[in-house]
Specification:
By secondary structure, the protein is of the alpha/beta class. The protein has a single domain, classed as Rossmann fold (3-Layer(aba) Sandwich), CATH 3.40.50. It has ten helices and seven strands. The chain starts with 25 loop residues before the first helix and ends with a strand.
């Protein structure tokens, strides 16, 4: 009797155990990215860029070249690498504090220039690594370490909606928002990340996929409740879908 393996570790992931908190979404998104790169057969031609924040660990887990970048600067590093090595698949892996706070200008200008790179944007609505402070994507009413009574628009401003902000720029080819709250959503996320990479491979310009991802420890929820909170609360501020294609 012969057996056929139908599930296993993607070649584009190392065997290093993850250090992420229990219930964190990073591990799921790492696997999705690795699966897509294996499907595209591009492991030897992929270069990732990881910044400061929880994403800083990415180089331990991806089994392909990963460059480090200063906080908020991955789009600039990706731009340089892609221009020098245009035949490579180049993507950044960034959290909301990195991409939407200190790195806002880098993100917008790379998009405006139509740089042929892909950004995977992990939105967990707080500064995960440093203790759960308010981030640009913290939603109205959300309690964090620095908004113990909840975010108030009149005091803290409104959440920054990156997909909606970028979709109007001519250099942007593909922008989508997704999540990983259930198996069907994981499959959708894989399809969207694959499509974003294909836009880059076809030289269409800038692409970004935003993933609404749970941070149970800093949200002070168990993992199941964190997933439900994304579906019932977070998507009201950050609706899912393709914003530009």
């Amino acid at each position: 009797m012969t057996t056929k393996r139908i599930f296993g570790r993607p070649e584009s992931l190392t065997k290093t155990p993850h250090l992420y908190c229990p219930g964190c979404g990073h591990g799921i998104v790492h696997r999705i990215i690795a699966e897509v790169i294996d499907i595209l057969n591009l492991r030897e031609k992929t270069i990732g860029i990881a910044p400061v924040g929880c994403a800083v660990f990415a180089y331990d887990y991806f089994n392909f070249d990963v460059s480090e970048a200063p906080h908020g600067r991955p789009p600039a590093v990706a731009t340089a690498i892609k221009r020098l090595l245009p035949d490579r698949l180049v993507f950044t892996y960034q959290g909301d504090g990195d991409l939407a706070a200190i790195g806002t200008a880098e993100t917008i200008h790379a998009a405006s220039r139509g740089e042929n790179i892909t950004i995977i944007f992990i939105n967990n609505a707080n500064y995960g690594m440093t203790g759960g402070q308010m981030a640009p994507t913290t939603i109205i009413g959300q309690k964090t370490a620095t908004t113990p009574d909840g975010r108030k628009a009149e005091i803290h401003g409104h959440p920054l909606a990156i997909c909606e902000l970028l979709k109007g720029l001519p250099g942007v080819a593909f922008v989508a928002r997704t999540t990983i709250t259930r198996p069907s959503e994981v499959l959708k996320t894989r399809q969207l990340i694959k499509k974003a990479f294909e836009y880059q491979l076809n030289k269409k310009g800038f692409s970004l996929v935003e993933v609404l991802s749970p941070c149970p420890v800093d949200w002070k929820m168990d993992p199941g409740d964190a997933q439900k909170w994304i579906e019932t609360e977070m998507v009201k501020t950050f609706p899912l879908g393709i914003f530009k294609e």
